[in-house]
Design goal:
Blueprint (H helix, E strand, L loop, with lengths): L14 H8 L5 E5 L4 E3 L7 E7 L2 E6 L5 E7 L4 E2 L1 H5 L8 E4 L3 E7 H5 L6 H29 L4 H16 L3 E3 L4 H7 L4 H13 L3 E4 L2 E4 L14 H4 L1 H4 L3
Helix pairs in contact: 4-5
Pfam families: cNMP_binding (PF00027), HTH_Crp_2 (PF13545)
GO molecular function, one term: DNA-binding transcription factor activity
Organism: Candidatus Blautia merdavium
Length: about 240
């Protein structure tokens, strides 16, 4: 299946039907090399972006040059939909390609307005968009949970715990390097690195680059279907 249709936005819609819809959604496919800017602070848009490949970071910056990662966009996810719906509302953040990216842009007015040629499938598309928006709202609430603790350790533990639950195992791979993780958790990189070293010394975690093993974590909260995956992923990464 074309990766365009293998995502939540087109879930439950046959590929042939989705192709019919794309003809009336005013779609544009764009390629962005790593490091390039997709949206700048102050930009406006009438289109939402669907990431087909690569990854994107949404970055909040201030006048003094400091920044934090407010979201990580992975393939199959959408971004910019809120500002596309409110065309006069400018982006308060910058969207940058963390890797080489392929993005499909869809005109949001066309998405939200059913057409005569494929209205049944179009209604499902609108339902899917509402589901995606609800999921993103949950993600924002989770980030609030990460940033509520005052200590760096508690922020790290809150984030790693959620990632372990999401990935279904105690050996997890993060979508951030060390600087990006510090930006995401709104802490200084040096302070984060120091705290991670302390946590490893205390036996809470092991790590290598962006791969972490949660030591002594309670496994009963992980899905039973995860089975041996709860620890199997550690064998190769953390071998002595």
């Amino acid at each position: 299946m074309d990766p365009v249709f293998n995502c939540a936005l087109f879930q439950g819609i046959e590929e042939n039907d989705a192709r019919l819809m794309l003809k009336c959604l005013d779609v544009r496919k764009r390629l962005y090399p790593k490091g390039s800017v997709i949206f700048r602070i102050g930009d406006t848009t009438d289109s939402l972006g669907l990431l087909l490949s690569g990854s994107i970071h949404l970055l909040k910056e201030d006048l003094w040059g400091s920044q934090q990662i407010i979201a990580h966009i992975a393939p199959g996810q959408i971004f910019g939909e809120v500002y596309a719906c409110m065309k006069e509302e400018a982006f308060p953040f910058r969207a940058a390609a963390a890797e080489d990216c392929q993005i499909l842009f869809l005109n949001v007015k066309r998405v939200l307005t059913t057409c005569t040629s494929s209205c049944a499938f179009h209604s499902r598309l609108i339902q899917n968009l509402l589901f995606v928006l609800a999921s993103k709202n949950l993600s924002l609430n989770r980030k609030i949970d990460y940033l509520t603790p005052k200590s760096i350790r508690d922020r790290v533990l809150a984030y790693l715990s959620d990632e372990a639950l999401r990935q279904g195992q105690t050996c997890i791979k993060l979508p951030f390097n060390r600087q990006q993780l510090a930006d995401y958790l709104c802490v200084e990189r040096s302070a984060l690195s120091k705290e991670l070293s302390k946590m490893r010394k205390d036996g809470l975690i092991s790590y290598r680059k962006n791969e972490f093993r949660l030591s002594g974590a309670s496994l009963h909260l992980l899905p039973e279907s995860a089975g041996d995956q709860k620890s199997a992923g550690c064998k190769n990464t953390f071998q002595a």
